[in-house]
Specification:
This protein has 167 residues and is α/β, with parallel strands linked by helices. Helices cover 43% and strands 23% of the residues. The protein is built from six helices and eight strands; from the N terminus they run E-H-E-E-H-H-E-H-E-E-H-E-H-E. The strands form two sheets. Strands 5-6-1-7-8 form a five-stranded mixed sheet. Strands 3-2-4 form a three-stranded mixed sheet. A hairpin with a 6-residue loop joins strand 2 and strand 3 (40-43). The longest helix has 19 residues, at 114-132. The two termini are 19 Å apart. The model has no long low-confidence stretch (mean pLDDT 95).
């Protein structure tokens, strides 16, 4: 099917879910821990800036994290699944052919021209943030692989405002 592929991917999804549940965590370093609080499985942008790496055993960084003001949350997969379902429902109303790729990302298909596709994606991103509270980055490209690369660029470059077109 000709057209453009759109990859919408939540930013730091598990940590973002925790901030929806507890807004006092916004802009704070947050880590989400695995079952039994063994290791870091997700990090907010602020925690990433501190150099915390996914997979790090919590006991190895607990003291430094406390010194740095890091908030550690136990995994809450029911909350994450609920917010994922809400996020996917919102995104499905903007473009057809939604293919849920993981708990925090989906592909959508657009037969519109690139400019209109980008405009819709900006509105979709805003609707997810306003309606669900989850920040989303969007990559738009002719293929799924290139959309994934464009999405990565959107996450890493604030000037993109969360939406990047592969061109």
């Amino acid at each position: 099917m000709p057209g453009l592929m759109v990859l919408a991917d939540a930013n730091s999804f598990f940590a973002s879910c925790e901030t929806v549940f507890d807004p006092s965590l916004i802009d704070r370093p947050v880590v989400v821990l695995s079952n039994n609080d063994g290791c870091v499985v997700a990090r907010s942008a602020a925690a990433k800036r501190l150099g915390i790496v996914n997979g790090t055993p919590w006991f190895k960084i607990r003291e430094q994290a406390a010194h740095d003001g890091v908030v550690a949350s136990s995994s809450n997969y029911e909350l994450y699944a609920s917010l994922s379902a809400r996020m996917m429902a919102v995104m499905s109303t903007f473009l057809p052919g939604q293919e849920v790729y993981s708990i925090d990302e989906c592909f959508l298909h657009s037969t519109l021209d690139p400019r209109h596709t980008a405009e819709i994606c900006v509105r979709m991103r805003t609707a997810v943030l306003d309606g669900v509270g989850i920040p989303v980055s969007v990559g738009i490209a002719p293929t799924k692989t290139l959309a994934k690369i464009a999405n990565h660029w959107a996450k890493q470059h604030p000037a993109s405002h969360g939406v990047t077109m592969w061109d």
